[in-house]
Amino acid sequence: MQNPALELIRQAAAALAPHLQESGELNDPVFGEPAQYGTAYYAYVNAVLASTATGDERRRLMDAAARGVHATLRHMLDPDDATPPAADFTHAVGSPGFRNLRDFMWPPVMRTLRLLRRLGDTDLEPMIDKIRRVEVPDAFSERPPVNWAAVWILGEWQRIQEGLSPYDRDDVDKWLEPFFSDDPDVDHGFYRELRQATQVEIDWKNAIDLEKGFYREPGVPNSYDLWCRVHLLELLAEGYDGVYREPLEQLLVSGVRRSLGVQLSSGSLASAYRSTAHLWNLTGQCWYFHQAARLLRDSHPELASAADAAALRSFAAAKACQRPTGDLSPVENALPANWRVGHEVYTMDAHYVSLPLGYLATAVLDGFTGEGSAPEVGSPWTHVELEPVNRSLIHGSGWSVHVNLAPFKGYDSFGIADITLGLNRRLRFGGQTHYGRPDAEPDAHRLSNQLPFTLGIGVRRDDRSIHPLSAMTPTGNRHASGSGARLTAGAEVNGLSYEIEVEIDGSTVRIVEGVGDLACSLFVPYLKDRGDGQVTSVSTADNRVRLTSGTEVVEIVAERPTERVVHLAHGYESRHGLVGMVRLDLSGRGPVRYEIRRVS
């Protein structure tokens, strides 16, 4: 049987191999030093590959895995850790920052030990002794309900299962309680840091909404909802049978439904705040949907089938992150690593490729191959989320359209956040498009001064100035509803009443956007170059913009004629690559009707 997932892991791990040091540390290909938890996950990936190899190759991979675990345990056993891996690098000069990130190292260490035991490594006693001596939870930075804590709780459950922990199931129950209890303490650690950075106060009682299947933290990012639920699902899959097993089983069902709702037709995860369109979003979905399908096969067969299809869609998107040079990009473009296009300050190849490879490797161990064709999104349906999320999507006929009425400043656009046109298609809209690079030295997760753009309208004032709605701040009166092929939404924004209607009709999406009886422009930010050798060409004719990328042709057609067409081809980027911008200054006033057509 073909195993494309395993082959992708092999190729990407081989690309990182020249950066593995004799010490066991994995250096980042750009910055030449270890980054975050890359060493731990690369060790695990090597152990998984060893389980598929024989002879000298198996021994080589086992040795690389063992050296990586020992290097990781040096950090975990030293509370003062004078030489921790870098947590981030500034955009302007690549200056490193540091913080305790040991929380994320624990599961890959334990998984690697398990595999080395299974493979018959006879020299594990020094490693086992070190693992016994790790002080949990003191070694770690965060406490529940911070999503980081879900990671080390999983790792400690694995240590309990291996008979190496002083703790038991009752202790795991106590650690899980803040995720599910009413009014947990959130005034500590990273949760407090996020509240201060986002200036968002907590207005919900529970960190996890069991009914809606959503883990919440300030800014409500889709990525870290997925992150937390991945590790909690793995705890369930690992045989956790404590007090919170029933809530975890409920979260499995509601969480899969939410994840299906926020997966775009390309296999990507809908854009929302930090870590959008990162590779680990994709392989995390692969593992999550694959494992969920296994657990739901008997009780919810239709949901399991949908999860199987979603796993293949996310894998298709992950494959598209492979650069022409064979290595993987940590974000959803294939541009060179040292361009850092679409990167956060904390996005580096060493850990944000090793981590997603680890997710994919776990899926492979659980039987995922990536073989087969993922089905396109078929009959139209909507996924509507009101407070505190205020983001909604409509899917159908290969399309997904995502409308964000609560954008996070410095990251998200107001209005249309994403439009994807189907599987394995380059052209798309959204993905946190912005003008200019981030601030020179921003702190992770804090606001930047980027000007966000999206496919959508802007207001033209009497003084001829033009103001994109994408950069405006909604102030309330948000509403959204949808059924079948139509989604409607609206909000007050900068004193204007904004309304949008989206309808999917086969190969066409029809959109109406308006802010009253005002003159408007239509902005068309398009993906110009994602680093795969294709560059989008643009032609315009009055109210029509035609985008051609290889065999793909997409047209955006406004109903009204234009007074002026402006094409700005440089200075923009998104998570998906370098972006250009076309602006249509439309004649007349009032709501703007336009269509997006998949020509080929």
From TrEMBL:
Organism whose genome encodes this protein: Amycolatopsis acidiphila
Name this polypeptide is given: Uncharacterized protein
Superkingdom as given in the UniProt entry: Bacteria
